[in-house]
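Annotated sample (chain length 309).
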Amino acid sequence: MISDKAKGYIIGSIAAASYGTNPLFALPLYSEGMTPDSVLLFRYLLAIPVMGLMLLFRRGSDQFRINAKQSGQLAIMGILMALSSLTLFMSYNYMDAGIASTLLFVYPIMVALIMTIVFKEKITIATIICIIMALSGIALLFKKTDGSTISAFGTVLVMVSSLTYAIYIVGVNRTALRFMPTLKVIFYVLVFGLFVFIVKALMMNTFTLPTSPFSWINLIGLAIFPTAISFLCTTSAIQLIGPTPTAILGALEPVTAVAIGISVFGETLSLRSTIGIVLILVAVSIVVGGGNIHRQLLHIHRLFPRKRR
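Output written by the structure step:
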């Protein structure tokens, strides 16, 4: 019989791997002519009822209530999450999805820097060394073996995505939202984030519709695998093995994206890029596992509402 700890590691791995499937569903939609903001509009639109049903199942209809102050904070978090999603998905048009997902993974280091600079938390020597390791990894990824470089604009997009996600994490943990069940936060973040994509698509005339049943399959896949399944498995893993191991298992997110890029979309990976990816993953894992940063990254364990009996 499998122990709870083993189950936790398995479920945590599934959570990270499922989130790494973003490129698997997004890139085919791009090839069919859909724009990143339209893809995300449909992703959020399809994910909202799924998350709503999860919230209803857990605690009942009373859990949907929010006050004016919470609405304002959730709106800001929704905008941040939407910007993070949009810049990441835009970056797929400028660089390999696996590289983009790896660069995104530096967000825990950005959280650590925000907590040090803004909230005056003490930074350790180990964190400084890890920051240097991560920057070295980024430098290796930025310049390829043949002397060419990856897209500077694509790199900026991913760094903006990582930064806005880091700000979102800190914001949720430093406002009254930290007392709100995480599932409820995610539901309203998706709701408010949806309006960002609606407004952008209408104002810039970039709205595109799915053109085939295959498009709808990919959109549903985005709503289910890297959204609902990833969230549910992350929550279960935290309850079984705790937040730190679950956060470290998050390293499987970019690894999955890299594997998908190579096996499905024919992306290539040089030795130089491999070393860069490893440096980033090791640096982030040490930062997450070596300090209190996991409390900022994963506060779901304490706040997630349990199912009514």
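Annotation: Residues 299-309 have pLDDT under 50 and may be disordered.
Annotation: DSSP finds 15 helices and no strands in the chain.
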